[in-house]
Design brief:
Layout (H helix, E strand, L loop, with lengths): L3 H15 L3 E4 L9 E4 L18 E9 L5 E5 H9 L3 E8 L8 E6 L2 H17 L9 E5 L11 H10 L4 H15 L7 E6 L3 H11 L6 E12 L2 E4 L5 E6 L8 E8 L7 E9 L12 E6 L2 E6 L5 E5 L6 E2 H16 L3 E7 L7 E5 L8 H16 L7 E2 L1 H6 L1 H12 L7 E3 L11 E12 L2 E15 L5 E17 L6 H17 L3 E4 L4
Parallel strand pairs: 3-5, 22-25
Antiparallel strand pairs: 1-2, 2-3, 4-7, 5-6, 8-9, 9-10, 9-11, 12-13, 12-18, 13-14, 14-15, 15-16, 17-20, 18-19, 21-24, 22-23, 23-24
């Protein structure tokens, strides 16, 4: 009597040998596979043999038939062993159709569709059949012309296997394991039922689901494992009482909020993350909340009432001066003004919600810093570095006195300048035109800005021997912008001032350098 099973296995072994593949037979029939196939390591064809990818390895089950039904029922236990192997798995079908020579050969790859089908059926059986007799339950595996090996040769078999692993063994294993560990869990892997009866518990759970650390004690916690929408009890994860806290909560969307102080005023846009509670779909509408988390703010917003709970924290990091100004301005709006502002959401996959927020009732603690930021912006505009200037709030606070003094210098004009000095060089004639030379500098973030200016006029000697300059004109002679990496020495400043002094001397002025006076 013909043994087509052995004939098929011998044929597969011969095909592998003809293509240079090592077909290792399984010694135990219940392993679920008949051959462990190893591809050769092609070292002789590589310029860098030490960097070669791992050779292909796969497991194959051989099925022989005298019919041509183009399908075969295979025990789930065998299929599970095949798909759980890290590498690729195949079913090799041989059709003899009553002859001693194989009439057709087919190779079916256990791909993602078949893996999903096998895992889903296994989950179904585990729920309805407590005996888990997977060897007695079978799945029909079809095959057709798309799986045919043509010609019936070892090289054709080898090429077909390689077709299913285009990026090599290592990438295939990673992709397969990732798929097996995620398929069926698209809507999560667990379902929990519990009782949270008080409003305080509900609010705590909502906050926790929005990424706020808020452990909540609940009762009668019943947990079920869920895959492919099918539930299985998990008694080891169930309890009469439990502490629930959502951890590592990912944002629902990333986008921005747009704030307007009054209708049609210039909008302020802030990039941020939106957290949308999964509990919002079944809690009372007055409890529906979202969380908006930005670089310096954290808003907890009731979409039904419009109530907003705000937290602000200006970090001691370098940021663009206008971004810092807008940050402080937003805090001012939310804390110091009893008015309504408009907030609009602009997040992908979330409705473009717009609502009014009632502000006030807080304490604005950055009033002085707000004025100082205005001063920094004025100085930066004067030197045309406002768009490039990054600075921290700490730097502004640290250099507050220098910033104030420097701004007064650049904003002063002839009418409000008071210049008096003492000189030991000579007696100054009341008719002699005087040029007083000044320089001043201040550090702004990574910039150092320096100004050299002159004040001209006539000198009037006072009773104490000092001279008072009757100012006629103030002129900015040089603006110098340095970065921390620039090498600018005091001698360089002296050269600049000497050039300016010589220019005025040529025009008949007596030049007095008042730096340090």
């Amino acid at each position: 009597m013909r043994d087509i099973g052995t004939m098929g296995e011998n044929l597969f072994s011969m095909l592998c040998a003809s293509a240079g593949l090592a077909a290792n037979r399984s010694e135990i029939d219940r392993n679920g596979w008949d051959f462990f196939v190893e591809f050769p390591l092609e070292m002789h064809n590589s310029a860098n043999p030490d960097s070669l990818m791992s050779p292909i390895e796969c497991k194959v089950q051989v099925k022989s038939t005298d019919g041509n039904s183009k399908n075969k029922q295979i025990p789930i236990s065998n299929l599970m062993r095949l798909i759980k192997t890290p590498g690729a798995s195949f079913l090799f079908f041989v059709e003899y159709n009553g002859f001693n020579d194989a009439q057709n050969l087919y190779l079916v790859h256990l791909d993602e569709d078949l893996i999903s089908k096998i895992l889903k059926r296994t989950r179904e059986l585990s729920i309805i059949n407590t005996n888990n007799a997977f060897n007695k339950n079978k799945i029909t595996i079809p095959y057709d012309h798309k799986n045919i090996i043509e010609p019936k040769s070892g090289s054709a078999l080898k090429k077909l296997i390689e077709k299913y692993l285009p990026n090599g063994q290592e990438e295939y294993v990673k992709k397969k394991q990732k798929f097996i560990n995620s398929v069926g869990y698209e809507n999560g892997g667990f379902r929990m039922e519990f009782i949270a009866s008080s409003n305080e518990q509900i609010q705590s759970l909502i906050n926790s689901s929005l990424g706020i650390n808020s452990p909540t004690k609940v009762s009668n916690a019943l947990t079920k494992r869920v895959r492919f929408g099918m539930e299985n009890p998990a008694p080891e994860l169930s309890s009469h009482s439990a502490i629930i806290n959502f951890e590592n909560v990912a944002p629902y969307s990333e986008g921005s909020i747009i704030i307007r102080e009054v209708k049609y005023s210039s909008p302020m846009r802030f990039k941020c993350k939106l957290f949308n509670s999964p509990l919002n779909s079944f809690i009372k509408k007055e409890n529906i909340k979202v969380r908006i988390l930005g670089d310096f703010f954290d808003f907890l917003i009731s979409l039904y009432t419009g109530e907003v709970t705000c937290k602000f924290e200006i970090k001691n990091t370098m940021q663009n001066i206008y971004d810092l100004y807008r940050s402080i301005k937003l805090i001012e709006l939310f804390t110091s003004k009893s008015t309504d502002i408009t907030m609009r959401f602009d997040f992908p996959n979330f409705p473009k919600t717009e609502f009014e927020v009632t502000c006030g009732g807080g304490s604005f603690i950055y009033e002085n810093e707000m004025h100082m930021i205005d001063h920094v912006i004025n100085i930066a505009n004067y030197f045309n570095i406002d768009k490039e200037l990054s600075i921290s709030l700490h730097d502004i606070q640290l250099h507050q006195s220098e910033i104030n003094s420097f701004l007064k210098i650049i904003e002063a004009d002839e009418s409000n300048l008071r210049v008096n000095f003492r000189t030991v060089q000579c007696e100054i004639s009341p008719e002699k035109e005087i040029c007083c030379l000044f320089n001043a500098s201040v550090m702004l973030g990574d910039f150092i800005v320096l100004i050299v200016f002159v004040v001209t006029g006539m000198a009037e000697k006072m009773a104490d021997g000092r001279y008072n300059l009757k100012t006629s004109e103030k002129t900015t002679e040089r603006k110098i912008i340095l970065t921390r990496d620039d090498k600018f020495f005091e001698i360089d400043l002296d050269v600049v001032k000497d050039e300016i002094a010589n220019k005025y001397i040529k025009h008949g002025y007596l030049v007095v350098d008042l730096q340090g006076e």
